[in-house]
Each structure stands twice: as C-alpha cells, then as structure tokens.
Amino acid sequence: MKIISLIFIVLLFAAATAFAQCPSLTITGPEGVTNPGDQMTFRLDVSKPDVKYFWTVSVGTIIEGQGTPMIVVVTDKATSASNVTATVDVQGLRPDCARRASQSAPLAAGISCGLVMDEWEGLKPNDERGRFDVFFAELSNNPLNIGVVVLQVTEQERFSSLNKRLQMAVKHAKFREFDLNRIWFVLDLTGKSRTSVYRMPPGADMKPCDGTCITIKGGDL
After folding, report:
1. Whose CA is closest to 73, among 23, 109, 27, 24?
2. Does the pLDDT value for residue 110 go beyond 60?
3. Rg over CA atoms, the chain
4. Which domains does the chain have, with CATH numbers?
5. Kindly report the CA angle at 109 between 25 and 64, in degrees rounded to 5?
6. Structural contact between residues 39 and 115, judged by C-beta atoms closer than 8 angstroms
7. Which of 52, 69, 146, 148 could form a disulfide with 198 if both were Cys (CB 3.0 to 4.6 A apart)?
8. Rounded mean pLDDT of 47-73?
9. In whole angstroms, how far apart are CA 215 and each of 169, 170, 183, 208?
C-alpha cells in the first residue's frame, strides 16, 4: 500500500508540475480612449522562453513588434470601428495549453479625421463653461485648426440654431472674445443630451454630417 501511495503522490506531483507549465496568457492594452490615427500598444504578459508570437488586429496596421510579446498598432484616421481587438497566437506551448488570447481597446468616435478633445453630459452651466474654456484654449494653441462642437439632442430640444445649448456655447465664446468663425456646430438627433468637442487639423474632411444631422457655422450666428 505504501508503494502504491508513493506512486500516486509522484503521479499527482508530475501532473501538477505539468499543469504549472501552461502559462497564463494575458494581454494588456492601452489605457483610456485612443483617437483614430494614433498608435496603440498591446503587450502579452507571459514569461516563457522558446516560443513564437503571431499577432493579428481587427483594424489598423501592426508597425512594430510582430513576432515579439509586444506590438505597436497604428489606427486608421477614417475608421468607423469603435474598438481595436488584438489577438496573439503563441506557438511552442504544449498541445493542452491555451495558445490564444485577445484584448480590445476603445477608439474615440472620430468625425472626418477630427481629434476628439472632450465629451460630457449632465454638467452644471459653470462646469460646462469651464470645459469650453479648455476647448477654446486648445484651439488658440492650434491656430490653423477648426473646432467642431457636436450636440447630441433629444426630441424635446430645438433642432436649429435656437437650441439653448448651442446658444449658451455661442454666448460664452463671445464673452471670451473667441472667433466664432473657427467653430462649427453640429446638431445630431440621437435621443441623448451629450456634448462632444473636436479639433479639426488642416486637410481634414469637413463633412461631419451624412444627412443625419445639421451643421451650423459659428460665423453665421
């Protein structure tokens, strides 16, 4: 019986050792939200020698790191995807080990190559004015850029230049003596009450609407 027990313990130890040889495959992606056109980094957290790595991404292009535990992905400025998913296949592990892992990271909702700067909803008026102050300052630091203010509106709000939220932004810009010719306003009937602000660099396609919203140039107000 002692011999049988000893053999059983040895087998259990061997099985446990074999199980421990399967690494845990965990991918760490970028923190926060990435603007379309910017780069993302994905890293596989695994310490296992003598293995090979093959990466794929759902959108974007791998520009560095293929075959290594970490890759750099450049996203497409014109992408309509909301996430980038990176998947790695690890070659060289035992057949009973997990060999694939994936991780997704969010992309900002780009408007025709614009750079999203801020988004908010449900703020008090003074807090919202503070957000616009940051927006105006960023545009002042980029004098060749155009600002786009996207106002998602509900059916209870006016769908015109008389929209109260739009008028508040216009009045605050005038109070700050900011040039309204550098701002476009977009009203988007989505059923939400949310504000997003974008910075449009030179050469960006200034077509934030595809028939689902209306665009009003600040200079016309």
Report:
1. 27
2. no
3. 26
4. 24-106 (2.60.40.10), 115-220 (3.30.1330)
5. 40
6. no
7. 148
8. 91
9. 15, 14, 11, 8
